[in-house]
Amino acid sequence: VITLVEHPDGKHCLLGRQSRWPDGMYSVVAGFVEPGESLEECVIREVKEETGIVVTDVQYQASQPWPFPSSLMLGFTAKASTTEFKPDDDELDDIRWVSRDELNDYGETSDDTPGPKLPNRHSIARMLIDTWRAEH
Questions:
Q1: DSSP string, 90-130
Q2: Closest CA to 104 of 130, 125, 80, 128
Q3: Bridge partners, 118 (sequence order)
Q4: pTM score over 0.85
Q5: What is the pLDDT of residues 15-66, one digit of tens each?
Q6: How far apart are CA 40 and CA 19, in angstroms?
């Protein structure tokens, strides 16, 4: 699953960064479904583990074939009910709330320029971000 989390103020979304990603790239939270777990339960668990944020109102958005490991990526949105970062693991090197205006300053993953970058335009992560950004 992959999830765009909206801040309670409706003006910010949650982005994180893993060290193994291309320089500067930030994305939405993703993880794998555990046996016996619903998709909604997975979204809630993964967001909490990786960021410490508690979410509600999990809504399915879209899917995308995912080659590693021959899976299907299911995209969701969720609303944050907490805002303080308290990750249970160290999967993300950085976590931040980003406004729609701030997203305009993010570059493309293919850019050689320094600074934060968005995921590839063909990814479900980018579709979730762009859809949220266009809502207002």
A1: S--SEEEEEEHHHHTT-EETT--SSS-EEPPTTSHHHHHHH
A2: 130
A3: 108
A4: yes
A5: 999 989 988 999 999 999 999 999 999 999 999 999 999 999 999 999 998 7
A6: 27
